[in-house]
Structures are given as C-alpha cells and as structure tokens.
Amino acid sequence: MDKVGTKKDVAPGGRASPAPSSKQAMPRQAPAAAPASATPAAPVAPTAPANAPAAQTGVRPRFPYGWLVIVEGPGTGDWYPLERGVSHIGSGAGQTVRLEHGDDAVHAEGHAVLNYDEAHHRFVLSCPEGARLRVNGVQSDAPTGLRDGDVITVGGTALRLVALCSQNFHWSKDLQRS
C-alpha cells in the first residue's frame, strides 16, 4: 500500500505502478510489435524509397508489365512482378517466378515460360514438352496468348495474371531507355 491507500503492483523492469482505482481509467498499451523475423520478406526488394524521384536516387526506375499472384495451392498470396521480356516459372534457383513452396509437381527449371510480346501487347505462355500446364482449367501444350485475369495452373499451384500492360496501356520504348 502507498500513502494514498492503493495497492502497488510491480511492473516489468521492477518499477512499482499503482493499481487503478475505480475513478481511474486503465491505460491502454499499444500491442507489441511482431519480431522482425515474423514479417515475411517481400518477393523483390525495392530499388528506391517509396515516391522518391528517380533522378534524385540515381536508380533507373523499374517498369512492371504485370504480376503473377498465387491464388490457390502452396504459397497462396505470394506475388511476383513481371517485367519486360521472358519470365521463367519453376521451383529452382534462377527462375524469375520461383515457386518454392513445397509443390513437388513444379519442375525446378522452366516448368513454364511467360513472355511479354511487345508487338501485340500481350503475354504469351508456353511450356516445354512433358510439363503439365493448364490455362483457365484447360490443358495447354502450345503457346497461348493470355489476358488479364487468366489463371495458370502449374502442378498444384494456381497463378492469376494481373496484367498492367495490354492493348490499352503499355510502356513507351523511349521511356524505358531513359
């Protein structure tokens, strides 16, 4: 008991704190921050601080053409940026879209290849012979043109294409070289 007649509790760190009386509101504490190791790492590290002009950072901006988002299977919620050119999909090191979430049906090297066709402003998906691949639930053996929202199934993993570039919008080649 202290001089006022309230009981004191011992707070972490050995300091005494008075117990709240009926007239005092219990102070609210902010929830403890999760340890840094509990936060999942982003699939790609940022190249510049958010909203920083490229001229000030000295880093050439990246140009996203779209994203693949895992919508079903191991790794649901992970996403992968697609940039200009060819993106290799597989579970091994060196793959642009590395599906290393435990789906044993995904080949390590080049299970599928996704290319942005700049002449026609669309994504084209192909796979090597023997690789199992479905587009919107249909088996695909030949190169297939994709549209925004199409779902590619590789093994037991379904990836949804979120296309930024298309007939309606695409990056200027002059802009990309600056």
TrEMBL record:
Superkingdom as given in the UniProt entry: Bacteria
Name this polypeptide is given: FHA domain-containing protein
Matches recorded under CDD domains: FHA (cd00060)
Start-end of Low complexity biased regions: 24-57
Biased composition (Basic and acidic residues): 1-10
Annotated stretches, region: Disordered: 1-57
Source species of the chain: Kangsaoukella pontilimi
